[in-house]
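User: What would this chain look like folded?
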Amino acid sequence: MTVKSFLSAVVVITLIVSCTAQTEIDWQMGPFVKYDGNPIITPQGDSWEAKDVFNPAAWSDGETIYMLYRAEDSTGIGIWNGTSRVGLATSTDGLYFDRRPDPVYEPVDEWELPGGAEDPRIVKINDTFYLTYTAYDGETARQALASSNDLLNWDRHGLIFPELGWTKAGAIVPKQINGRYWMYFGDTNIWVAWSEDLISWTPIEEPVMRPREGMFDSGLVEPGPTPLVTEHGILMLYNSADDDLVYRTGQALFDINDPTRLLKRSTTFFMEPDVEMEIDGQIPNVVFIEGLAELNGKWFLYFGMGDSGIGVAVYEP
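Assistant: Here's the prediction, encoded as structure tokens.
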């Protein structure tokens, strides 16, 4: 091979690698950079949020970010001894939050006591907020649903999939597709369900995404914040764990015309536990994303730090 031919081959290989990397990056969101001031919210007082705060949802009206976060007291049962409620906090800069003194959503039904209302996810469609959360009775975790016009007063719609038993992590796509609304859910594999009214949901039996052997998401996969509808498709930032139960975050892209069809999936994680609270928290080695909101040209990704406090990572396009 001549020097000229060799150099031409190197250029071609470089371009192929570069284009492949660029294709991988183009559809994904980020990079997200963890805020140096984390945790931004920690437990306080001696009642409903005294033990731990974590796993927040978020929504922005363009001027204020509204955060719905999970808070635990010390009155529950079992190894973690906490009943969960949902609190509301607001911020005009995405970093510093003012908290309401009382929870805005509390467990009241038998299927959500004594464990509580856990891991909220929020979406606004038309003029209504839809809250999905995990109702935990101390033995079985089940997805439940509520709706509100103001994030303060809630209509309770009960269990989403009463016939399925254990279900978690419902993330609703904020746009109707082919006459239906779609929700990704699950905390082992990820499944999808559809609805015509956002209240009654029909699950599809076959998972749309599974763990991958030998990778950062080999143990489990679980939806993160509300999916985004982008020019490339339905973008879902997701939670995962490997075989050692170290939680990291990835990204997946679904077909905008067929939300059951997985198009692409990140080959590497974009966030992992690397500070003390994330590594040695109530649950070790956990970063857990559930809230994503845009404010002043920045995207704020809120996450639970070891099930003990709340952190944020920021992406500036």
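Confidence is low (pLDDT under 50) at residues 3-22. If you want, I can go into more detail on any region.
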